[in-house]
């Protein structure tokens, strides 16, 4: 049975394993202090938020998100990180996490939920093309 909910203190190790897997997918290795800082912020649930997907009470997916002001619409909800354990893929966890973020965003009067992914992430893009609209924007960034 699949359930979605807030991350609890007992989820810390499983969350870190999943978040490390997410970062490894994008070629990043993060120091322990990075995980400690992120976990503390998620537990406060003020500026950044996290939810987990559980299959038979085992944490198999995570999503991190935040809101920000918009100059042209109601506040926006940015879905920053989404990751499902490889052994749980195809079982609805990622879709359920996206749906849960959208429900949270509606409850908090956001005008949209949006996210980005790498163009080569074909597996994720198959799902994203089903649940959202690709509006054709290209992401630019300046590393600081």
TrEMBL record:
<keyword id="KW-0012">Acyltransferase</keyword>
<dbReference type="InterPro" id="IPR000182">
    <property type="entry name" value="GNAT_dom"/>
</dbReference>
<dbReference type="Pfam" id="PF00583">
    <property type="entry name" value="Acetyltransf_1"/>
</dbReference>
<keyword id="KW-0808">Transferase</keyword>
<protein>
    <submittedName>
        <fullName>GNAT family N-acetyltransferase</fullName>
    </submittedName>
</protein>
<feature type="domain" description="N-acetyltransferase">
    <location>
        <begin position="2"/>
        <end position="144"/>
    </location>
</feature>
<dbReference type="GO" id="GO:0016747">
    <property type="term" value="F:acyltransferase activity, transferring groups other than amino-acyl groups"/>
</dbReference>
<dbReference type="InterPro" id="IPR050832">
    <property type="entry name" value="Bact_Acetyltransf"/>
</dbReference>
<dbReference type="InterPro" id="IPR016181">
    <property type="entry name" value="Acyl_CoA_acyltransferase"/>
</dbReference>
């Amino acid at each position: 049975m699949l359930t979605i909910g807030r991350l609890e203190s007992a989820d810390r190790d499983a969350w870190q394993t999943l978040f490390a897997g997410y970062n490894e997918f994008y070629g990043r290795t993060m120091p322990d202090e990075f995980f400690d800082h992120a976990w503390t912020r998620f537990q406060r649930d003020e500026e950044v938020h996290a939810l987990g997907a559980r299959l038979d009470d085992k944490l198999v997916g995570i999503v991190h998100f935040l809101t920000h002001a918009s100059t042209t619409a109601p506040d926006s909800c940015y879905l920053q990180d989404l990751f499902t354990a490889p052994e749980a893929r195809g079982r609805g966890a990622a879709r359920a996490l996206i749906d849960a973020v959208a429900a949270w965003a509606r409850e908090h009067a956001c005008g949209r939920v949006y996210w980005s992914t790498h163009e080569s992430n074909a597996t994720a893009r198959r799902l994203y093309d089903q649940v959202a609209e690709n509006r054709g924007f290209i992401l630019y960034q300046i590393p600081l």
